[in-house]
Amino acid sequence: MIRKNEVLVIYVCEEGASADMADQGEIKSQDEDGSPDIKDWSEQQVREWALKLDGVDNSVAEILFKENINGHSLLLLDTTDLKTMGVNFGPAKLIIHARDEVVKLMKEYPTCSTNQPERPCKPYPFCRYHDTYRYMENSILDITESGASDLIEPCHEYKAFINTTDETKMSKFTAEVIRFGSACMNSRTNGTIHFGIGDKPDFIHGQVLGVVVEDKEAYANELKTAIEGYFEFKHKRAAQTCIRPPRFVGVLNKNMTSSDKCVIEVDIVPESTICEENIYHTYMDIKKMKKKGKETAKTETQSKRFFVRDGGSSRDLLATTTFAKPMEEYNQFVHKMAQLSQLRKQAEEKHLNVIKSSTQGSKLSHMITGGSLSLDKSHFEQYVIVTNKSHSTQFESLGFLVELNPTAVLDFDPESAKCGLQRNFEQKSTVNVHLPVRYKITEGVEDIANKLKLTRNTSWVFCNGGIENEDPSDIDQWLMKKGASVRDVISFLCRKDVLPNQRFLVVFLLLSTVSEKMDPLVETFSTFCQELKGTAQILCLCENEKAFTSWRDLIEARCGINISGRCIYELSFAEVNGTVLSLLSKNRKSSRFLPCGGGSKVLLEKKVERSLNTLEVLCVNQCEGGNQDKLIKEENFYKGGKVSWWNFFFSEEAGSTPFIKRDKFDFIMNTVLPDLCTLRKACVLFNLMHVPGCGGTTLAMHTLWALRDKFRCAVLRDGKADFAEVADQVVKLLMYGDEEQLPRVPVLLMIDDFDDKEKVFDLRQLIEKECAKKDIRSKTAQVILLNCMRSESSEPTEPTGDTVFIGNNLSDKEQRLFEEKLVEIEKTHKNAETFYGFMIMKKNFKSEYVQGVARNTLKSFNINQKHAQLLAVLVLLHVYCKGASLSISLCEEFLCLQPKPICGTVKVEEGFGKFSPLIARCSVEDKVVFEAVKMIHSSIAWHCLQELTTTHNVSKADITDLLLTTNKLFESTQGKDKLLQDVHHILVKRYHSVEEESQFSPLIQDIASETAGQEEMVLQNASKKFEKDAIVSQLLARYYYLKKKDFLEAKKWAQGARELAKDNSYIADTSAQVIKHELKNAIANYKEEPITPEKLETLIKMAQSAIEAFKAAQNLAKKESIQRLQVKRDNSPFNVSGCLGEIQVGVLVIEVLEKTPIFSADNVRHDIMSGLLCGEVKLQDVERHDQRQNKHRRYYFILKEFEDVLCNLKYRMKLNFDLLENFYVNLGTRFGMKDSREQRILNELFRCFKQYAKLFCKTDSAALLKKKNMPILLKLLQARQFLEMHKADTYSGILNSLSNDTAPESVEYIAKLYGFVCLPNHSPTVKERINSIYVNVVLSRVKLESKHIQPYQTLIPLLCQILREQIPLGDNLPLYFIAVVLLWPQQFQSASECMGLGKYISLMRTAYHSVMKEVMNGKRPVIHFFLGKRLGYERLVLLGDIKRCVRVGQDQFASIWENGKIWKEKKVEELLCRVTGEVKGDFILADTHISTLKVEIPPVFGSELRGHSQGSRVSFFIGFSMKGPLALDIT
Fold first, then answer.
1. What burial class does residue 1204 get, using C-beta atoms within 10 Å of its C-beta: 0-12 exposed, 13-18 middle, 19+ buried?
2. What is the pLDDT, as a whole number, of residue 630?
3. What are the backbone angles phi and psi of residue 1208, rounded to the nearest 5°?
4. Cβ 1205 vs Cβ 1096: under 8 Å
5. Are 1526 and 1423 within 8 A, CB to CB?
6. Could you tell me if 270 and 276 are in contact, meaning their C-beta atoms sit under 8 angstroms apart?
């Protein structure tokens, strides 16, 4: 890389030498400070200059030094003189040419040869691209070239880059960047290399020169290509990531005008996750080497480089040196790379950003208005703006200047009229342009003000030329040339007879960083300060903290005052703009603003808001300036319509009583939400469960309204929207206005009426992923989901930290508030008695009141009238479908409400006649947004439906039939799809409980109980309406096999459903269920004993068909699950119906066989049947030994036809039992959710297993092991049968005894049996030996004092012995799980036993994915044990132990488990062992008691790693699951 004397070396490279990685390995000399003028060089400086010249041997430099050649004599030398001194002709010519180039450069850059004072400036912000910062020509960067400091603060290297030819400049640029970049990567330090910055001795160190760049894109492309060429293939991706694209920073002339130059900068960011512990060699040109074919080892060695940062330079540790051991330094550096990488990780963690709370928004509002907080009533009547060089990207954030309508703008940008702020301002407002000289008092003050039109238009004063042919002045010349005239301007403006005394504000708008003490703005501030006698009328707006720091220090040095209290610097200009604009009432009416924290705001552009189309954004100034009719809005709400933001807005107007606060409002505001905000997760959840119609949605929206200035609030428009798109838009809302910094304000997103909490968790997961993708690192919650969900029960749910329940029972305080509100309503509304939505709550939900309203309103109901039909349909839909409605256009068409030429359109409410008080308007978000009507209240709808049935003899079947057969209801284009969805919902949606499985939807069940038989007609009509719908065909099939027992018809509908959805496992399962129920029905209806051969054939054939159908359903279920796993967007769990169905058929087959004479005689026959179904006894052997063989010949003939099915029956049943046990024991629902359907399935499995065990596991447990003469083989058989009967023959069954309340004595007896089975002379299987270890572990956790537990020290060698053997594939998962649990290093444990831990974890994860891949989608691995503080067995802590520490209900436990609060419980902390480790990618590298053993552990919740930078040290608890160890409570 070309070093310090770069400008002089460049021309040598260009003329003769290769540009590839010039000056590799050179150490930058530490020049003494001296004059940059060549004539002032000392002999030593001449020597060093000559040493750096390419093509000039070091001996020539020594000759010059010996001859005492200094700078002055160097200028007098010619070629002849040099030859006389003994320098050959070639080097002599090079020296003379190089000297002439220096002289030429001194003339071009006179600053370099003068002793002008340095003008310091800051470097461009690191790793930023959109800042408006620019350099000024010949200013001096106040950062020296340096090596690594704290690894995060970037080191710097400067390149003048001003004398390269077009042919060589690109290769030189890329070579220097590669050299510097690889050095930073190896040294693990951030860094920036600058092209266009000078260095000694030719320039002042850090002097801004700038270079002309014609094609910026070419630099980025060439750099990318160069990285491909110089780095090894395995490191190319890392290099492309660490070496950032070039940035082009503009350079201003000294008089603040724009130049055509820029400084090219390349940032290097060697993040620990990218670099890890790698080292990075570079090569001269890998691509060229490959083209030449096979190279010698010597050539490859010569091309290989290893750069590191060494002070202010990059040094090649592989370069030839004079050291005795040339590779020693390289080897030492490589050896310390792990330590250096660790330091980098720690540095990243230390510098992790944390959101800063700021109050500068409120401070700005106060200062710019003089305390009135409104620009309409501002203390200040006039504003004067003082500003400097602007950037075009700032203009969109400076709209507030137009609104301030400044009296005068003192502009120090000479290009402001050409391309700056004045030109932009003039397009929006009228200005008068002046030079300062116009303000000199040469006549009466009022006359001057009049001529300047001072108070009529904005006077734009160009304080540094730029108009009327006045040239701008350099900074150091400005005070002498223009300072006096600008002082005149300030003195004029501050006169009491020009601007009102103490009623105007001077705003210093620092659009560029002020970094020099001679800057005109410093002098201008001093003058204003003197004229105004202080800073009370001065406000300074700085774009960032660096600009503020520089400004504050300069003012303190110049004026001796600290102006921090008069400065705004924590807000971006976009936030300043939004905050100031929001202080004007007209803007609050016309524009919308989002909060940014601390009272600051940002303008929400209409285009951006429209792009957030899945969200309804609630702005800080929502409703302000609108012209909605208050009475209409209130009437709609009080009648029962959904609350709108207008209702909250109106309640805050003067004279109105406040919006009614529910009792839970303050609890949510002051406890729940603040608590959730502290959680270290990207997205947290708050559930607001409510009984329909009790004000849950209103309370949720009230919460958002109250927090709209503290959160970025929004409501999800459509629950059926693409959640990935929703997540993207939520994060966009979060980041809006903060693109290059952390967001200050979280998003509060309300989601309403989801019917399944799993959907909420899906959305939450996607939001967390989107936050991770955007690298949003913060230690507090960024998005809060307020899940407003209807409760199926009116009974309060168990209170949890993240759930609030709103029931249909008002407190005394709430009732009093409703009474007070009613008084106000009656004053302003004449028809308050019809405000049923309000009155129902005011009456505390009394059913008598609601029933009376329904009866009185429906007195004139006649089903033959159209409006009555429409109301009946609306009532039915509302009762059975949440949020159902009918579009206005549908109602208008159905009721024939057509526009009239004179009178206009009849309101749809009028079309409903006397029933209109029962309906309310609403807006529906679906595929299209449309206006609709709905029932005003859920209880009104329910009582209306009852009234129609009891009083008007209109049944639910009648209304449903009307709905399905009235085609006109489905002809409307608007809302048609939504109506079809709602109708489909009320027909097919079932609800389940633990006690029973709902066979049909509530509507169908109610029709069946109210008008038995009518449900069939309804379903037939439904099939015609939904002709191509597989779910409706499935519904018909279910109806015919469950209710009608018409299996032929059921098969027809099931087949139709299969044709419509061939790959759906649930549809396939219905086909199988039809056959199973037909079999079950046939068995139940057959009363003869024994069963006839013909009937046996029919039933077994039916069973065979059912088994095959269930197998097909299983295969589809597995296929579906794997597809969902690959897509990662569908968290639906594995469909277990096919497995359970096959088991149920197996039980029915056993029941059938028991009724045959072959197997029904006695216990011997029972054992024969067991042997046959196990496949251990052949049917022909049974027949041969049957004494009634001839009598039973027909039976044997039939059984032989199905022998394959029968002999595999036990195997298939056991296979499915084990699969489901494995599924339910090792996989849990996400986030601790309970699922009633699972409990129902487990109950059915228990019933079926009892039948299975009765046949296949029959044994006399009392006699077991007592009969000493019993043959060993029989004892073993009976022992194994006992173990299978108690589900102790599988590791899952043994583990399940930890959670299913198995008596300790039972576990003890099982351990005793395994002790017998696993005796060496009994030849136990590997599986039994593994199970024996599980039993010992489980028994230790339920009865530690048991004498049947093997000592821990004895068990470990047994485990290690198994690990050394060949293991069947099916036993890998249980073996490696228990190995990881027991071999986790602890004190006093042999290191040799534990060293394979990492391998066992890897093998366990592989086995887990192999075994569980078909069933694990949408599930989370269950944690069976936690790592405790004790030793041996006692360090294994159970979930039950943790539950006993907190003693809360199941829902509360699930809540505190999910949000992490459980780990803060003192008893839990005392119980568990906290492990340390460091973050590495998506894992934590955990420490163990063995210093050399580190283990990769993933977190349970991926979002817990957010807020921890790579390599940071963390502590956590460990849980052991079948997927491997998991980290919990990462801190």
1. exposed
2. 83
3. -100, 5
4. no
5. yes
6. no
